Amino acid sequence: MSISLQNIRLAYGSRTLLENVSADIPAATLTAFLGRNGTGKSSLLHAIAGLNKVSEGEIRLCGRPLAALEAKQLAATVSFVATDKLRIANLTCEQMVALGRAPYTDWLGRMRETDRAAVRRALETVGLTDYAAKTMDTLSDGECQRAMIARALAQDTPVILLDEPTAFLDLPNRYAMVSLLARLARDEGKCVLFSTHDLEIALSHCDAVLLIDTPQLRHIPASEVASSGAIERLFAGSGVTYDPAAKRLRPAER
């Protein structure tokens, strides 16, 4: 499995977010990470990326314990696209994507032809070849998000994690973004896990859903979500109901 969570306990201060949860996420799949605000989606993504630690249990990436991976090995195994946008005026789109090659360059960061080819290929994959010379502060939100994904592609890792990649995008760009992630998973063989609140888009494009229902975590094939009752339980008492036919949440009737 590309990502294996084994008996994980995740806490925030004195509050337990997840208790004794396990899940296995294979390669070549797109998985949406769903849950209400404050339930630990970002915290767990950061833990899988090696940016913070779980309280108990073990995370394994591509069969190896996360804790045993050295920094360079970790950087060659998992890439992480955060919600932050890099709006640096003097940094071109191509230069930002080239940062993904850091695990493979020498100590001076010198790029070889294989590195430059990886950057060009990443820009082409996300449709930003014509934007290579543009500075990051001139890109739209959607273009900036695609550039961040291109950086992850240039990093050439088997596991890609994204925290709310569709946030702040309009509806057409949200669909385009998740379609791109699905293509990366299926055509490139990547294990792609992303957190989102876009339930309809997630269920129509993803292979599976990772669902936090504190303190539990459920890994459900997308085709079984409607019949599982998991979404209805998750949002019970929240003022919305789940319409399985439309695969979307609607305001609850009064």
Describe this structure in a few short sentences.
The chain has helices spanning 41-48, 71-75, 93-98, 113-125, 141-155, 171-188, 199-205, 225-228, 230-234, and strands at 3-12, 15-25, 29-34, 56-61, 64-65, 78-81, 159-163, 191-195, 208-213, 216-221, 240-243, 248-251.
Please give a structural write-up.
With 254 residues, the protein is α/β, with parallel strands linked by helices. It is 32% helix and 27% strand. It is built from 9 helices and 12 strands. It has helices spanning 41-48, 71-75, 93-98, 113-125, 141-155, 171-188, 199-205, 225-228, 230-234; strands spanning 3-12, 15-25, 29-34, 56-61, 64-65, 78-81, 159-163, 191-195, 208-213, 216-221, 240-243, 248-251. Strands 6-7-8-3-9-10 form a 6-stranded mixed beta sheet, sandwiched between helices. The protein has a 4-stranded antiparallel beta sheet with strand order 2-1-4-5, with helices on one face. The chain has a two-stranded antiparallel sheet with strand order 11-12. Strand 1 and strand 2 (15-25) form a beta hairpin. Helix 4 (113-125) packs across helix 5. It starts with a strand and ends with a strand. The model has no long low-confidence stretch (mean pLDDT 89).
